[in-house]
Structure formats: C-alpha cells, structure tokens
Amino acid sequence: MSIAWGNCCKEPIIKEASDLSPGLRGDLACRGVWEPQREALFDVRVVDTDAPSYVTRPVNVVLTAAEEEKKRKYVSACEQRHASFTPLVCSADAKFAPQMTAFLKVISERLADKWGRPHETVRGWVKVRLAFAILRATSMCVRGARRKWRNVEDILGMDGAGLRIGS
C-alpha cells in the first residue's frame, strides 16, 4: 500500500488498553485512501468457508457476516479517532467480500494512474498477487519451501514479461 499512498504503517494502535477494556490494534493504517488527509484503518480476516460451521451457508453470507463482525468491533473506536475503518475480508479460496472488492478497485485505479497502465490490467494483476499471497499463507505445501529464488524463471518457468507492471 505504501506504493499507492505514502503515509502507511503496520499494526496501528486504534484504542489503548485499560483496566476495563482490552486495546484494539488494526493491521494497517494509511492516510488518504477514501478521503484526502483522513486516516483509513484496515483489519484483515481470511475465512475458511469450507469449515464445517460454514458449509451450509452461502460464501457471500459468510463473508458479509465476517465484515459486520469486524465493524462492530472497530468502528466506534475508529470514529473516536476521526478515522475511517474498512474490514478486508476474503475466503481462503480468494473470494473477496464487498468492502475488500471496493478497496481493490481503489488501489488498482491509484496504481494504474501512477504507472500509466490500463486499469483492467492493473486490477487483474492486484487480484492475482493477492490470490497467490492468500494461497501461500493458507497452504502448507506452498508455505513449506523457504528457499530463495534466483530469478523469475525459477518461479514461473518463463521470462515473466507479462508480470513487469511496475518497471
């Protein structure tokens, strides 16, 4: 996100802990995402929609419920701080909740303007990068290998020309 917006930080404290209530910490804060000079706070949640407790419910309902749960937890503390809050919720299969989809559109448009590339191309690139990050985080097979790759050919078996968006 620091590529798209300059003032970003990881794990911002939203609300200090006290004797009466636990503190709240977001996953990411960035200034100017939704409104100029207004801080936007984000909290990420990846939901395993194949879990036994979710199997009977549609995926969209599960993701929307997870968004609402995050909002109940964070919105009032963010409003006291005069910041906006956006829950970034997706499934382990990289299906995105509505607010995450809206955020991906905004960040894709920002990067497309910055890089001088078509919006559709950058939006596809962002979604693929995010899908692979989710896959890497949730799959033991992919997570197991921690060796360093020497070049793009080691990863993809080709020259990677289609991935050179930012250069």
What does the average pLDDT come to? 82
| Count of distinct structural domains | 1
What is the C-alpha radius of gyration, as a whole number of Å? Answer: 18 Å
Given the C-alpha coordinates, what overall shape results?
flat
List SSEs in N-to-C order. Answer: EEEEEHEHHHH
What fraction strand?
15-25%
Based on DSSP secondary structure assignment, what is the total number of beta strands?
6
Tally of alpha and pi helices: 5
- Please outline the major beta sheet: 4 strands, mixed
- Distance separating the two termini: 17 Å
Low-confidence stretches: 155-161
Oligomer description: single chain
Q: Helix content range of the residues, please?
A: 40-55%
Structural class: alpha+beta
Short structural description:
Helix content is 42%, strand content 17%. It has 167 residues and is α+β, with helices and mostly antiparallel strands.
Task: Outline the structure in words.
The chain is α+β, with helices and mostly antiparallel strands. The protein has one domain. 42% of the residues lie in helices and 17% in strands. It contains 5 helices and 6 strands, in the order E-E-E-E-E-H-E-H-H-H-H. The protein has helices at 59-80, 98-115, 119-138, 140-144, 152-156, and strands spanning 8-10, 13-15, 24-25, 28-31, 39-47, 84-91. Strands 1-4-5-6 form a 4-stranded mixed sheet. A two-stranded antiparallel ribbon has the order 2-3. A hairpin with an 8-residue loop joins strand 2 and strand 3 (24-25). It is flat and about 50 Å long. The chain starts with 7 loop residues before the first strand and ends in an 11-residue tail after the last helix. Residues 155-161 have low confidence and may be disordered.
